[in-house]
Amino acid sequence: MDFKIRPARKEDCKDVSRMIMELAVFENMPDQVKISHEELERDGFCQNPFFECLIAEVPEEHKSKDGFTVVGYALYFYTYSTWKGRSVYLEDLYVMPEFRGNGIGKGLLSKVAEVGKEKQCVRLNLSVLDWNTSAREFYAAKGAQNLTESEGWHSIRFDKLNMENLAKEAPKD
Amino acid sequence: MDFSIRAANVEDCKDIARMITELAEYEKVTDQVKITQRDLEQDGFSKNPFFHGIIAEVPEQHKSKEGDGKTPTRYSTRQMQVFGCETAVASDKKWLYLCFLGKGIGKALMSKVAQLGLAAGCHQLNFTVLDWNKSSVDFYLHQGCTDVTTDMGYHYMSCKGEAMEHLAQP
C-alpha cells in the first residue's frame, strides 16, 4: 500500500487527537486523556515545542472506511541521559487497525530513529504495557531491550496533585 | 543545615560530571557513563538546551571532606516533556553526598523541580528508579508518587547502539 510519512502540521492535530483517543481506548484508559487538539496545537507548534510528531498518510483512494487519510502517527520528544547524552523518547506510536501489516509502523519508528540520529541522539526510549504482547514483540524485533526486565528499572510518576503538594514545600528563591 | 537551591550554570558542569560518575558508581554501572563535562556544557547551555539543571549548594563552612576547597553540590536534571495526554516533567538523576543526607536537600530539590514544572504548565513528573535501590524507592513513595511499572504494568524499553543505527536507515 502506498503511504507517506511526513512531519505533522498544526492542521493535523485534530487527526492526531482522534488517534490518541483510539490508542487510549485500546489501552483501556480513555478516561485518562485530558487534552484535546487545542493543547496539541499550543504545545507542539509554539516557539519551544514540547514534542514533535510524524504522520502517516495514505492517498485519497485508500482512505479509511470513515474517510480519513491520516492513518498513523508517532509523537516523540528529546530527553537527556546523564550517562549517554541526547536521547529521544517515543511517547506514542499508532497505526489504525485497518492499515496495519503494510510497514507503516516500521516506517514511523524508523523515521523517529532517523530524526533522532540527525540530532545526535544515541538512545530511543519508550514504554510499553506488559500485556501488550504484539507491541512488545514489535519493538523487541527492532532491537529494543526491556530495561524493566533486564535491569530492574521502574517508571515512577507524580500526578498533578502530588506535584502541587511537593511544590508547596519548594524553598523560596 | 543551611543550603540553597539555584539554577545550574555552565560553570557547574564540572561538578555535575563528577557527581554523575559518583552516582553511576553507586548504581554499579560506571562503564556506562559516556558523556563528559563538555557534552553537558554543550547540551545544557546552548540555544535549545536538551536539559535544565538545579543545584543544591552549602556554605563554605559546611563543605564536604573531599572538595579541593569547592562546595559540593547536588543536582537534578530536569527536562520538559509531553506525555501523550498530559504535559509532563521528567527528572533524570539525583545524587547527594552521604554526609548531606537527612538534611531536607533531596526533598527541596524535588520540590523545586515540581514547582518549575507546574509553572511551565506541566501535569506530571516522571522518572525511573532501579528496583533494588530501596532508599530511593522509599524516598519517592514517601513523597506521594506511583510506581506505574508495578501498578499499571508499564515496561521501560530502550533501543541503542547498533539497533538504533539499523532502525535509522531509510
Automatic annotation (TrEMBL), chain B:
The keyword Translocase does not apply. The keyword Acyltransferase applies. This is N-acetyltransferase domain-containing protein. InterPro entries: Acyl_CoA_acyltransferase (IPR016181), Diverse_Substrate_AcTransf (IPR051016), GNAT_dom (IPR000182). Belongs to the acetyltransferase family. SUPFAM superfamilies: Acyl-CoA N-acyltransferases (Nat). GO terms for molecular function: N-acetyltransferase activity. It holds the Pfam family Acetyltransf_1. Keywords: Acyltransferase, Transferase. It comes from Sphaeramia orbicularis. Residues 3-162 form the N-acetyltransferase domain.
